[in-house]
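Quick entry between incubations.
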Amino acid sequence: MKKWFALLLAVVLACSALAGCGSKETSGDDGDGPIKIAYSGPMTGDNAEYGLLFQNAVELAVKQANDAGGVLGREVEVVEFDDKNSSEEAGSIAEKIVGDEDIVAVFGHFASGVAMTAAQIYQEAGVVLLSASASHVDYSSIGDYIFRNNVTQDVEAYNCLQIAVGSGVKKLGMLKLKTDWGESAENSFMAALEEIEGKSDIELVAVEEFVDGTTDFSSNITKFEEAGCDGIVVFGMYGSLGPFAKQFRQFNTETLLISVGSSYTPELIDLAGDAAEGIMFPGGMNPDSTDPKVKEFVDAYTEYSGGKEPENMSAQTYENVQMVLQAIENVGSADREAIKDELYNMTFEGVTGTISFNEIGDAVKTQVWYVVKDGQFVESEDHKLVLWDDFVASL
Amino acid sequence: MDKRDKIIWLVLLAALIVLPAVGLSRYLQRVISLIFIYSMLGLSLNIVTGYMGQISLGHAAFYAIGAYTSGLLSEHFGLNFLLTCVCGIIMAGIIGWLFSIPTTKLSGTYLAIITMGFGEIVKVVIVNWESLTHGTYGLQRIAKPEFFGFQLNTTNNGLYYLCLIFLVIFVLLCIAIERSKLGRSLRAIKDDPLAASLMGVEINHYKRMAFTISTAMAGCCGALYAHLSGYVDANSFNSDVSTLILSIVIFGGMGSIKGMLLGAAVLVSFPEVLRFVAVYRFVVYGLILIVMMVFRTDGILGGPSKRPYVFPRFVKLEKGEVTKNGTAGGK
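Done. Structure below.
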């Protein structure tokens, strides 16, 4: 009987505790209370470094908005969730967020697969999801409430190829992370290669893949060496690119390494040291830029995070919050649907550039050609990235 | 089971039935449905671990097989949920049976390692067999179960009730197994395999049977989960899930049906309840588990079975030969 009592008690406790965080029936959309936004990202687990960087960005943007008197005279409040970068967790979190009528927009979900699972729930409920990191081609097409302020994998892959061709690479190798993100980066890259076939003498001679968490790349490096690559495109995060570059440079100091925007972060230099020299990227915001707007943001972020410099996706997260708050200001209401409609209409001057959204909710923006020089990311002086169509036409 | 137990079971069931009518948010519905599914997974592993005393660290593999079988059949052929679910059960059962043939001679840590390896193999196959499983992309937008043109979803509480019905079936099935010859044989094997075989229990036969039933049940849970969440990928079935299922069995109390329900309720809801401690969530969660296990090594509702041995009807005992209850209950 005691056991039964314990069982009942535990169930009741669990239910009531959960009920406590359940939904409220009232809708606070146009009330006087605070405007609530949600942030969800990995704060523990494999990709926690990104989740925490984004968290700082969201909190900073909210703090600045509140210091300036709030939005529509109302305070902005952020609710934070840890999704461990897992689809199952993200699904539960999404249900929890859409159940809270006060939350007007969601920022985050790090990986594309995780964001796409949650996106279906946000779309169904009609809550704006603005991701700064999802890069899967199909992400934005899930619905009209699903936005991203990130350069798509297509554009990124095309720009990597543009850098390779522009740098005179002839025999190209490719190293990709074996996830849905890596797969679709490869597909985009292949499509790009097909488009310039015959117009350029570049040739793909080796394709290698690795799983998340790999630290020893010696077998991949051997294959690249055998194929005689003079350029390698790495589709991976900085946590993988760093060790790869370090190991690769022990064998070969000539071959050009090209990677994508998600590796474009100051941590890469810490990880790879001298081996990072000469790695090229298509990227967004330049943290060392002399642009006063960017400088102001970098300083504020570094101060807020206790010494951490922002990388590009944090900057995009910061912009995302500002954009939604701006949209609320523009329409004079924190209505979920009104925010969505305004996002399609507005053009925003952010720290990574001028941003507008196309008809499926992808940000339209150009990229900058970066190279690592003396331990710093610098804008390439010799080259400039152009829109892909212009590049193909110029060949 | 005495009368008071029966009443409590019925009260609990009635409470769960009326709960959605009182008004449950979608989030709560999802969490409670997950508790139901993990209770069922606990019940299925309980047959191997609780009754038979064998450790399996790869239960998520069979959960995955059920989920993918059901999800893929629904995607390619648009079959009804019940049909795809049955296929998931059969598929997981067959693979579980094949797996049990070479492993019946193993026990303890050896079986634990082999099952853990199998769990990883299944995960790697899912990631790499792209033409069938879509690799890391996972199965997207799996159809919600539909009966006679009526779609079960979160809005009409259908998924919640579907999971509840399956849970009730699982509980009844487990009670039947516990009382059957199979259940008694398994408990005998757990206590002393040598003594059991001397008493005429075909150890290998019963081990295979238990493993097959257990994996088939896990396959059923997989099918249910796939249609509940609408999305599955290899990460939904990683070793964390196997560990969680085993934790439910050990934490709830090996061999106890009530224990599985309680274990799942606690272990699934705790991480959700603990969200307020943010990044320290899993530290607190681990601490709670350690403290609980230190103070109740048998799990919350575990401990030696007190089920009396019921003699077959044709066995007539002379007065004074045995006391009221026999002694053959075992653990």
